[in-house]
Structure formats: C-alpha cells, structure tokens
Structure to design on (304 residues):
C-alpha cells in the first residue's frame, strides 16, 4: 500500500513537471491579442438584468466593468458565459464573453471579436488551484474559475452542438424573437421588442409574446390605481393623502385577458414605500419608460 502511495505521488510529480515543461514551451512561442479597437463612445444603454447576470456569472468583475460589457455587446446578442482572464505575455486583463455570434474580447480600453470558425486552438495547458492556463490561438491566458466553468467555456468555443444547446437555453425567455430593444429590471420584469413590433413581456417568472397591434390597453399601476394608460394624457400624481404604496406594476390587457408585470414588489416586512424613497423613484421611472415605449409603438402603428 505504501508503494502504491509513493508511486501515485511520483506520477503526480512527473505529470506536473511535464505540464510545466509544455507550458513554458508554449509560452515562449505565444503571442498576444491583435487587431483590437479602442472602446468607442458607449451608448447610454443600461439593462439591469444583464448587469446582474454578468456579476453573478463572473464575480471577478465589478459593476463598472459589467456596465461596459452591457453597453458594448449589442442587444441582439446574449451572453453564453463570462470569463475573467489575464494575457500572460502582456499582463493585460481581458473579459471573454461568447455570444451567439462571436467570442468578445473586452477590457476597459479596447475590444474585439473572434469568429468561432477562426478558433483553431483552445485547450488547457496548465492547472492551477483557482484558475487554469489555456492556449487560445497561441495566446496564453490565465482564466479564473473552477473546472466545470472553464471546461464549459472551452466547449462553447470548440463544439458547435454544445454551443447551440446553450444558445437555446439562454434565449428561451425571448420566445424566438431577436430584440432590438430591451428594458428589463433586476427582478427580471420588463420588455423585449424586435424589428416587427413583436413584444415579449417578462413578468420575472413567465414570458408572453404579442404584437403591439394585439394590445387593448396598458396601464401603470401604483398598488391598484392607474397612473398612466394607453392613449391617455393622464399623468396622475400621487396625492399627499396617498404618498405611500406597497407595489408598482404594469397591466397589459389583450382582449378579454391581461398580464400583470411586477415592477416594485411588496416589501418582505410588509412596510410601505414612500414617494421619496429612491427605490420607489427608480422603479417608477423604469415603469414610465416601458409605458412610454409602448405608447410610441402604438402611435407609430396608428400613423401608418
């Protein structure tokens, strides 16, 4: 038994030596990312759901970096995973985000994309405790994450079938539309709209697809009181006698049925929000943005 233990230890030591030897050889022949572009002036796009997804998927990133990713990657693309890496040759940090179309390579100064068909090499060359070194087209990177996450990333890049399966999982909430506009909050409520005015309403639990022409009415509700509604100039203010509430929601009516979209959910302690609370103001502004977007679409349809 002792001999077996010693042999296992010896085998592991030899494996590590061979791994380090191979790593040093590949590192000596490695290059760095080329063809990256300086970050442009980024649009004022900030989808809270996407930012939360980025931070949950890649805890190494902070909110400022997550906002950059959210702004630079188009609404038409979804994140399949998100990895934090360091380019060994230069020491530069890069955030690697595969989507349906590309592998995005981004940091605080520059960005670029890599077509999947142009990825010729992608394999692990050295195992570390909380990271791995990989060879990506002769660029040696140290990538943070556990075995499962890093292997999943490599499989997305190398295996089209696995990539397609993950794409289907990640985009199921879109109900087969390709959004050109999205506004979804932290709890997953909001809307996605495609070029044909198809709208997916996200209720933070379910997703419903309709066309703007299908909508009979839409209303912004504070508790159950309508504040804004379709084809109405009414912008009812909460009066001094009603300066608190439990919830904010949007009611979408389609003929004889309706969907309730929670925007600000009741407090877990049963306490009311006041109109001066920042959480109330943020969610009210978010709800108004959605109502205004639906009204704009309705007006455009009616004018044609």
């Amino acid at each position: 038994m002792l001999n077996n233990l010693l042999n296992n230890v010896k085998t592991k030591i030899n494996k590590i030596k061979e791994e380090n030897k191979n790593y040093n050889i590949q590192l000596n022949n490695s290059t760095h990312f080329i063809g990256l572009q300086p970050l442009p002036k980024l649009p004022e796009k900030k989808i809270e759901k996407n930012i939360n997804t980025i931070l949950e998927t890649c805890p190494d990133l902070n909110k400022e970096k997550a906002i950059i990713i959210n702004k630079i990657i188009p609404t038409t693309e979804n994140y399949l995973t998100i990895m934090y890496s360091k380019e060994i040759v230069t020491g530069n940090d890069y955030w690697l985000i595969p989507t349906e179309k590309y592998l995005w390579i981004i940091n605080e100064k520059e960005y670029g994309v890599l077509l999947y068909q142009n990825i010729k090499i992608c394999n692990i060359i050295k195992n570390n405790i909380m990271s791995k070194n990989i060879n990506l087209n002769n660029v040696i990177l140290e990538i943070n994450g556990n075995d499962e996450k890093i292997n999943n990333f490599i499989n997305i890049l190398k295996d089209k079938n696995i990539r397609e399966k993950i794409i289907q999982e990640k985009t199921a909430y879109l109900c087969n539309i390709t959004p050109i506009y999205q506004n979804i909050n932290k709890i997953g409520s909001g809307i996605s709209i495609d070029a044909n005015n198809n709208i997916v309403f996200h209720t933070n639990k379910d997703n419903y697809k309709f066309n703007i022409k299908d909508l009979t009415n839409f209303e912004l509700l504070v508790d159950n009181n309508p504040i804004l509604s379709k084809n109405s100039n009414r912008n009812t203010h909460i009066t001094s006698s009603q300066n608190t509430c439990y919830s904010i929601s949007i009611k979408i009516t389609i003929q004889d049925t309706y969907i309730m979209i929670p925007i600000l959910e009741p407090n877990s302690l049963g306490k009311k929000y006041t109109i001066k609370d920042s959480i109330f103001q943020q969610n009210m502004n978010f709800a108004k943005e959605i109502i205004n977007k639906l009204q704009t679409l309705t007006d455009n349809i009616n004018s044609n």
